[in-house]
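Sequence in, structure out.
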Amino acid sequence: MTETTLFRKKLEGKLAIVTGGASGIGEATAHLFAKHGARMVVIADIQEELGHQVAKSIGLNHSTYIRCDVTDEEQVKAMVEWTVKNYGQLDIMFSNAGIFSRSDQTVLNLDLLALDHLFAINVRGMAACVKHAARVMVEGHARGSIVCTASVAANQGSTGYTDYFMSKHAVLGLVRSASKQLGEHGIRVNCVSPSAVATPLTCSILGMDSEQVEKAYEPHASLKGVVPKVGHVADAVLFLASDDSGFVNGHNLVVDGGWVD
């Protein structure tokens, strides 16, 4: 058998939304969803030019871009409803939009305005996406899959970046609660927790190129000889979104190469 013959499309006919889909983990996942047969991947992001480029690169018959600022619940609600109105269903929500701390904050110097801004995206935005995706799935009797992007930061404390670590703990709490509440409707809610990967956002904040970021975080992985890439995270999201994880609910899938402090 050839490699092409063996390839099995895991999302055949599914409709997926990917927030933060214009770059980084979201972009890689959007491409992977399309590769695995999703009939439409909706790219939701505030980066309009990049979002249109990603949709075009996937193919406009299988992907489209819509501007959505997840800090505005009405925009999230409208985006989800627009998707269902135009495509008739919603099977997968990958709630991925998020940011990192712009400053290394400790408890003693915590800037609460900066914390509010970060929480508006990482926590309130995540909750809004889960809420409105779940509502249309329940109404449409869809046995859907909701996947959120958490982080290795959700499972540990830190000597800095307090607001970011707090926000990712909140994401894990959201997933664990939503999975219990939505399970009775046949809706699965899980999250993926990557370690640092060299996304454009990470590189920009750290002031490093991708090679420098990878080198900086290499000592934190007990698994040697493998460089963490966005594709590793996208593969994990695909697993959680597809029927391969049909009996997995409320799970935090850690993709960190055996992270060690």
